[in-house]
């Protein structure tokens, strides 16, 4: 429902040009003070409209911001209009506001002045007469405050997102440390314990067969240590780059788990180290999910560089799943998404029961192929 707000409408109009100019300057000062106190875009519009109506320049007005459901009223100031009359005008007023926003210019319709503040916000005022220069100055004042509030809000949202991503990254690091600790304890630790016990037995009763078994166990333990080191940070990634590292990793995954892994890589140049690390980790996590959950026969890894981005796609022919019913943390999806988004990229996963799974990661490139 429309609201009625009393203002300074009894104030007499200035009789001289000097008085008019003084009143305009007073209004601009009050407008600047009111809008500068606001750090939210909606509050800026509310403060601006209240100032214009309460200082007596206009008898009524309404402020709008375009939302997901269309024009959203953020402030209403009417005096001495009744609620009934003000509300009866709103359907036509809304259409005039849409037209002004689309045209990006001030519209004057049936006594209303529709003033776009930016592409998504406008103020509509009526019941007053102001000079075009003064109106332009008022609009610029509101626009400056509105843009400042928008930038402040965007900065606040970005800082909040950065904090969320940083927290998630720390969680991902802790999960990685937990996995490494488990691998060392369950595999390497138990194997070394077996070797020690075997050597103690061999000291008491040397047996070639026992020693041969210990040698084989030591070799397997060494392979496990190398695998863990490779999972942590393959030296080939630093020495030869992402393409070479993925070739080695996909080959080892295929041989170890009996998967048909196809790698298609088209990278004309080395990528920045942080990009190579993120893309390698995403591919690594995606292939780990294939091995653990997908029951797939074939998986493809496609890495391509475009003019403005590099894209990684990992696709399998496994059993798939419903992403809405699986927590992202269970499959490492949150970690993949956060790594990609920290570099300003885009992450997407597509899957359905019986239809396999596809992971997309796209990172932006600056001119010259740099991140």
UniProtKB/TrEMBL annotation:
<keyword id="KW-0067">ATP-binding</keyword>
<keyword id="KW-0004">4Fe-4S</keyword>
<dbReference type="GO" id="GO:0005524">
    <property type="term" value="F:ATP binding"/>
</dbReference>
<keyword id="KW-0547">Nucleotide-binding</keyword>
<dbReference type="InterPro" id="IPR036890">
    <property type="entry name" value="HATPase_C_sf"/>
</dbReference>
<feature type="region of interest" description="Disordered">
    <location>
        <begin position="1"/>
        <end position="20"/>
    </location>
</feature>
<dbReference type="InterPro" id="IPR005467">
    <property type="entry name" value="His_kinase_dom"/>
</dbReference>
<comment type="function">
    <text>Member of the two-component regulatory system NreB/NreC involved in the control of dissimilatory nitrate/nitrite reduction in response to oxygen. NreB functions as a direct oxygen sensor histidine kinase which is autophosphorylated, in the absence of oxygen, probably at the conserved histidine residue, and transfers its phosphate group probably to a conserved aspartate residue of NreC. NreB/NreC activates the expression of the nitrate (narGHJI) and nitrite (nir) reductase operons, as well as the putative nitrate transporter gene narT.</text>
</comment>
<dbReference type="Pfam" id="PF02518">
    <property type="entry name" value="HATPase_c"/>
</dbReference>
<feature type="domain" description="Histidine kinase">
    <location>
        <begin position="279"/>
        <end position="367"/>
    </location>
</feature>
<keyword id="KW-0418">Kinase</keyword>
<dbReference type="GO" id="GO:0005737">
    <property type="term" value="C:cytoplasm"/>
</dbReference>
<dbReference type="Pfam" id="PF07730">
    <property type="entry name" value="HisKA_3"/>
</dbReference>
<dbReference type="GO" id="GO:0051539">
    <property type="term" value="F:4 iron, 4 sulfur cluster binding"/>
</dbReference>
<keyword id="KW-0963">Cytoplasm</keyword>
<keyword id="KW-0808">Transferase</keyword>
<protein>
    <recommendedName>
        <fullName>Oxygen sensor histidine kinase NreB</fullName>
        <ecNumber>2.7.13.3</ecNumber>
    </recommendedName>
</protein>
<dbReference type="InterPro" id="IPR011712">
    <property type="entry name" value="Sig_transdc_His_kin_sub3_dim/P"/>
</dbReference>
<dbReference type="GO" id="GO:0046983">
    <property type="term" value="F:protein dimerization activity"/>
</dbReference>
<dbReference type="InterPro" id="IPR050482">
    <property type="entry name" value="Sensor_HK_TwoCompSys"/>
</dbReference>
<dbReference type="GO" id="GO:0000155">
    <property type="term" value="F:phosphorelay sensor kinase activity"/>
</dbReference>
<keyword id="KW-0408">Iron</keyword>
<dbReference type="InterPro" id="IPR003594">
    <property type="entry name" value="HATPase_dom"/>
</dbReference>
<dbReference type="GO" id="GO:0046872">
    <property type="term" value="F:metal ion binding"/>
</dbReference>
<dbReference type="GO" id="GO:0016020">
    <property type="term" value="C:membrane"/>
</dbReference>
<keyword id="KW-0479">Metal-binding</keyword>
<keyword id="KW-0597">Phosphoprotein</keyword>
<keyword id="KW-0411">Iron-sulfur</keyword>
<dbReference type="InterPro" id="IPR004358">
    <property type="entry name" value="Sig_transdc_His_kin-like_C"/>
</dbReference>
<keyword id="KW-0902">Two-component regulatory system</keyword>
């Amino acid at each position: 429902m429309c609201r009625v707000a009393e203002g300074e409408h009894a104030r007499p109009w200035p009789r001289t040009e000097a008085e008019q100019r003084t009143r305009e300057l007073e209004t601009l000062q009050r407008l600047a003070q009111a809008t500068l106190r606001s750090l939210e875009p909606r509050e800026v519009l509310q403060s601006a409209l209240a100032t214009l109506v309460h200082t007596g320049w206009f008898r009524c007005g309404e402020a709008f911001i375009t939302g997901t459901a269309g024009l959203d009223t953020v402030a209403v100031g009417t005096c001495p209009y009744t609620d009934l009359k003000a509300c009866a005008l709103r359907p036509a007023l809304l259409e005039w506001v849409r037209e002004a926003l689309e045209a990006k210019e001030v519209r004057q319709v049936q006594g209303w002045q529709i003033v776009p503040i930016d592409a998504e916000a406008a103020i509509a005022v009526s019941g007053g007469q102001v000079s075009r220069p003064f109106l332009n100055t008022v609009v610029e004042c509101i626009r400056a405050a509105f843009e400042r509030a928008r930038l402040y809000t965007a900065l606040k949202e970005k800082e909040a997102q950065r904090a969320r991503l940083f927290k998630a990254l720390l969680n991902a690091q802790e999960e990685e440390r937990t996995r490494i600790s488990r691998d060392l304890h369950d595999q390497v630790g138990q194997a070394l314990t077996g070797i020690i016990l075997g050597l103690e037995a061999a000291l008491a009763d040397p047996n070639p067969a026992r020693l041969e078994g210990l040698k084989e166990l030591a070799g397997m333990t060494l392979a496990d240590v190398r695998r863990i080191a490779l999972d942590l940070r393959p030296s080939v990634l630093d020495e030869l780059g992402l393409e070479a590292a993925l070739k080695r990793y996909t080959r080892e995954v295929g041989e170890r788990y009996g998967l048909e892994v196809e790698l298609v890589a088209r990278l004309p140049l080395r990528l920045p180290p942080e990009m190579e690390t993120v893309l390698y980790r995403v591919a690594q996590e995606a292939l780990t999910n294939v091995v653990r959950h997908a029951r797939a026969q074939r998986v493809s890894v496609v890495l391509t560089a475009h003019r403005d981005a590099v894209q990684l796609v990992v696709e399998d022919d496994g059993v798939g799943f419903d992403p809405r019913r699986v927590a992202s943390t269970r499959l490492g999806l949150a970690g993949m998404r956060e790594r990609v988004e920290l570099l300003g990229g885009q992450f997407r996963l597509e899957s359905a029961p019986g239809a396999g799974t596809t992971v997309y990661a796209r990172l932006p490139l600056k001119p010259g192929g740099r991140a």
